[in-house]
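Below sits my pick:
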Amino acid sequence: MAANITAKTPVSTSLTGRHVHLVPLTMDHLPDLFVAGGGDDEVWRWQGGPTPQTREELGAKLAELLQESERGEFVPFAVIHRDSGRTVGWTTYTAIDTVHRGLEIGWTWYGRAYWRTAVNTETKLLLLDHAFEELGMERVQLKTDHMNHRSQAAIARLGAQREGVLRRHRLRPDGTWRDSVYFSLVREEWPAARTRLAARLDA
């Protein structure tokens, strides 16, 4: 890709796989989202802020995300589990830089019943494939709390390379400091990573 060509700006769209369907996130998804993860401290442990204990509290988080998406800071997706038809979490594109052709996949959560299933693998496969093949991105990054070892292992299984740690990157709600562990995939790595992810889904 020539140096003077920018990537496409992500917009709300639908991406469909065998196990999940990603659609633009709206307030209509709130009832399913609360069933999937409302009140679950483990789901929200690393998301920042207190666990939403009521549908109204989760609705406030969702409304905040949608407001930020209107300002262009996020492109959020609802994650629909195709077998059940239920919304089981959300995920976003953020840190979008079309000039330098990069973005981040972040603020992702799923109901605990869907951890270590095909849901995360296929969600990331769809988002990565869209970023590299349709949007023309050269780099996709992911980051997580240095204490969130489950998330770090899940990102590594995608084939992403660990790049390093930003120390004292964010202040947690409890007053302690979070170091952020950064991972990335670049365009040249994507074909092999895609093959591995597709094989995991087939298995």
Summary: The CA atoms of residues 14 and 150 lie 28 Å apart. DSSP finds six helices and eight strands in the chain. The first strand starts at residue 15 and ends at 16. The radius of gyration is 16 Å.
